[in-house]
Amino acid sequence: MKHIKLFLALTVCFWACMTHAQTDIDAVKSDPAYWSAEGQGVTIEEAEQDALGQIIRQIQVVVSSNTSMSDSSGQNTDGTEYSSYAQSTSTNVNAFNTLQNVEKRVLSPEPKAKVFMWVAKDEVKKMYEQRMQKVKDYVETGRKAEQRLQIDDALRNYYWALMLSMTTDPVYIEINGEKNNCQTFLPLKIKSVIANIKAKLEDCTYEANRYYARMRFTYCGNDVASLQLHFFDGQSFIGPLAVKDGIGELDLVSLPADGKLQLNYEYRFSEEAGHLDKELEAAFANIKAPLIENSLVEVPVNIDAKKNTMEAKKKYRDGVSAAMTDEIEEIATEPITHRKRLVLETVDDDSLVAILHKVEDAIRRGKAEDAYGSFTPDGYKLFATLMEETGKVSLIGKEQHYEFVRNANQVLARFCKIKIKFSDGRSFTEDLVFRFNATDKRIESIAFALTRKAEDDIFNAASQWTEVSRFTILQFMEDYQTAYALKRLDYLKQIFSDNAIIITGTMLKTATKAQVEGMPIYFDDDQVSYTRLSKQQFIDRLQRQFDSREYTHLTFEDNETKVINAPRLPKGTAFAIQINQIYNSPVYSDQGYLTLVLDASRELPIIHVRLWQPEKADLMTLDEFMSNFEF
Hints:
By secondary structure, the protein is an alpha+beta fold. The chain has 16 helices and 25 strands.
């Protein structure tokens, strides 16, 4: 009898719950404040996708209708009308589960699953508003990069803004007092940036049945800070080649039969987009990405069959750019920002030049041991690692032009231009710095120089420092990025405090806005999951990455550096630096911003805090960051 009563009680409870659930469902269905649908499938997941697809199609009808009414004019780069293109892509773009706070009720279990799902229209509106703001943020970031001559970064951000603008209502940006629709303006802006790049052949050498063409790339008459491109090597298009401070080298199988070097400037950066932004990843997966026709550029050259080399045609000695049409010419370029470089104490010593010529010969022959006597034991270890454990290292150009600078008891030989090529076809251009001991004139260490922009930022900040050498932070950041290239776990272990605060970020489709456990920081970002790691966990992670990847390459760009007040550290030796980091590896690439807090009171500075954040728009200022910590 008790069992019967219990059964009846459960039955009554079940039907009461079902009745209550049905009441909720009926209320949602009749409420115009929600999008809702009932989905079916063999599994719950299939039923959810069915319901979600129906909701998205309902949203798409309204979005497409609004888009068409908002702007029915203009053409995309592939010739299609702007409004029809927006309608044809909106459905697919929204079908990647970016809707937040979707509610669900399971109406029937598997194998005949049935679910009811709904989402508040205010949530959808918020999603579109956030996406539209992201478009504007990408455009603004692109404009700042263009001003700094970081042309790859400018093209990347302009194109990403274009892709996202095709997934929402029309987005308007104001430039020079005029409002511009991103879908019609950005293709022209990207073409304009490309048309203002000039490529110039400076020299060509022939070695081991290959041709090495040293190229200079300028933007509006200035050396580009950074640029990426693919090029035809005589058999196929290879790359990308990363250009640094205006210089890049093409590695050719043969001289161009038609007398034209073919270059294709990178502007999509679709792989990086997928790692950095899930909405962008979905956009690239579902939209036919607009083609920027003028990204392919041909540089005419004269072939000298007797000397087995080539040179620039006289007509094009100033460089070659993509065709400039009247339509593109109307798009103004951003004003270039120039910062005065600090005058450094230079050194004139022919004996150092003779030593470097021996090092150059060792690089050309690919035999590090040939230059053993030019290095201290520690210096040679770094040089041998560069030559033997990274990609193929080669000198760029027929001869090097060094700058010798004094730094305390060292003489720095800057900048030996090298190229490092890896098996996946990727090449990086680097400026190698040799650090001589001023007493015995042996090379104590080597490092990859920062970009001139990053160096200028540090030196201009350092001009106000009185207690610490201006080179301390510069050399530390050079060594930091070089340690990744040479996979120097020994060095990275030394520079992190045992109690360092290390916060990493991972891009997710959905993450919870929350504090990092145990940390006084709140991150207002729903696409990044932040994790605090111990020093050992961080080093172990790096070890796995170094073991599994042929290369890990960092590039540091614009930065802000300050001397900070840290009562636990000697006065004037605590520094906070915020720097843009571009990360490349064969399997993963991204860019973000590092915030580091350093104790520079010792010979080897120590990192007490390392924080990575992906977006410039969401970046905490150094003052905001420091207000959360005590040292």
